[in-house]
Specification:
By secondary structure, this protein is of the alpha/beta class. Helices cover 40% and strands 15% of the residues. The protein has two domains: 43-126, Rossmann fold; 151-275, Rossmann fold (3-Layer(aba) Sandwich). The radius of gyration is 19 Å and the shape is globular. The protein binds NADP nicotinamide-adenine-dinucleotide phosphate. NADP(+) binds at residues 177-179.
C-alpha cells in the first residue's frame, strides 16, 4: 500500500486523525430522543432483565436504565438470581411480552451457563426486541431491510460514520469480527450503505494486509490494542468497538490508539467512542418500537 491518502479520506490538516467524539454525538441523540418522548401522550416502556451479578453487566444495565429514565422513558430493571433456570427466565420474558405497557425488552448477555441465550432471544416478541437479536429481526437486516429493529452497537457505528461525514458509497470497508451482536449486523449495515464489505475473523489469512486495504475499518475482536498503526491505510476511518479491561484495571479498545491516530483520517476513542452510542441507540430502538406498536 502506498502512503497516499485513500480517496475521500484525507487526514485532518496538521496531521493526525479527526477524533469522532461518541460521547458528544450520543448526548445529542439522547437529547433529541428526550424531546420526542416529551411530546408523546405516553411514556415508552423499557424493561432490562439481568440474571446474576456479572460485574460488567451490572454496570451496563445501570447505565442503560439511567439513560432511559433521563430521556423520559418508563424504565425498570428486573434482577434475577444467578441460579435462575431457563424456564423461569422464559416465564419472565413471556410476562413482559404480554404486558401492554412494555415496548422494549432487553435481556442482558452473557447469561449463566444453565440458560441457552438463543432460546431466550427467540422467546422475545420481535416487536419488542430492542437489542435486534431475534432471528426475525436479524433476518430482515440480512435481507437488506434497515427499517426494523437493528442491533444497537452497529447502528451506533453508522450514526458516527454519518455524523463524521465519512464517504460510504463505494468505500472499501472491513469489519474485523463476525459475532451476531456486532460483526455480522455491522457488515450488513455497511453493505446497505453501498460499501464494498469484507468480514475478517480469527481464521483470516494476513489480517494486517486485509486491514490496510480498508477505507473504513470497524474493529470488534475483543483483543486489546491488536490493530497497530501499520495495519491502517493513511486516511482511513477507524472505528474501535472493542472494550477490554487491562490487568491494571484500565479500559482500552482493540486499536492501538496513539499509533492509529497518526495514520488514520478519522478515529473513535475507546472508551468514549462507540460505547455511548450503543446506549443512545437502545433508546432510539425503544422509541421506534413504541411508535410502531402503538401506532
Ligand atoms: P465476540 O463474540 O468474542 O467476537 C469476536 C470476533 O472477533 C470473532 O468473530 C472472532 O473470530 C474475532 N477475533 C477474535 N480474535 C481475533 C484475532 N486474533 N484475529 C482475528 N479475529 C479475531 O465479541 P463481540 O461480542 O463481537 O465483541 C467484540 C468486542 O466489542 C469486545 O471487546 C466487546 O467487549 C466489544 N463490544 C463493545 C460494545 C460497545 O458498546 N462498545 C458492544 C458490544 C461489544 P472467530 O469468529 O473466528 O472466533
Amino acid at each position: 500500500m502506498s502512503g497516499a491518502p485513500l480517496p475521500g479520506a484525507a487526514p485532518a490538516a496538521g496531521g493526525g486523525a479527526r477524533i469522532i467524539d461518541g460521547k458528544a454525538v450520543a448526548a445529542a441523540l439522547r437529547a433529541e430522543i428526550a424531546r420526542r418522548v416529551a411530546a408523546l401522550p405516553f411514556r415508552p416502556g423499557l424493561r432490562v432483565v439481568r440474571v446474576g451479578e456479572d460485574p460488567a453487566s451490572v454496570v451496563y444495565v445501570r447505565t442503560k436504565d439511567r439513560a432511559a429514565l433521563a430521556a423520559g422513558f418508563d424504565s425498570a430493571t428486573l434482577v434475577l438470581p444467578a441460579e435462575t433456570s431457563e424456564a423461569e427466565l422464559l416465564a419472565t420474558v413471556a410476562r413482559l411480552n404480554a404486558d401492554p405497557a412494555v415496548d422494549g425488552i432487553l435481556v442482558q448477555l452473557p447469561l449463566p451457563p444453565q440458560i441457552r441465550s438463543a432460546a431466550v432471544i427467540e422467546a422475545i416478541d420481535p416487536a419488542k426486541d430492542v437489542d435486534g437479536f431475534h432471528p426475525l429481526n436479524a433476518g430482515r437486516l440480512a435481507s437488506g431491510r434497515t427499517d426494523g429493529l437493528i442491533p444497537c452497537t452497529p447502528k451506533g457505528v453508522m450514526h458516527l460514520l454519518r455524523h463524521a461525514g465519512v464517504p460510504l458509497a463505494g468505500a472499501r470497508a472491513l469489519v474485523l469480527g463476525r459475532s451476531q451482536i456486532v460483526g455480522r449486523p455491522m457488515a450488513q449495515l455497511l453493505l446497505a450503505a453501498d460499501c464494498t464489505v469484507t468480514i475478517a475473523h480469527s481464521r483470516t489469512r494476513d489480517l494486517p494486509a486485509e486491514c490496510r486495504r480498508a477505507e473504513i475499518l470497524v474493529v470488534a475482536a475483543g483483543r486489546a490494542e491488536m490493530v497497530r498503526g501499520d495495519w491502517i491505510a493513511p486516511g482511513a476511518a477507524v472505528i474501535d468497538v472493542g472494550m477490554n479491561r487491562l490487568p491494571d484495571g484500565r479500559l482500552t479498545g482493540d486499536v492501538a490508539f496513539a499509533e492509529a491516530r497518526a495514520v488514520a483520517g478519522w478515529i473513535t476513542p475507546a472508551p468514549g467512542g462507540v460505547g455511548p452510542m450503543t446506549v443512545a441507540c437502545l433508546l432510539e430502538n425503544t422509541l421506534e418500537a413504541a411508535l410502531a406498536r402503538r401506532g
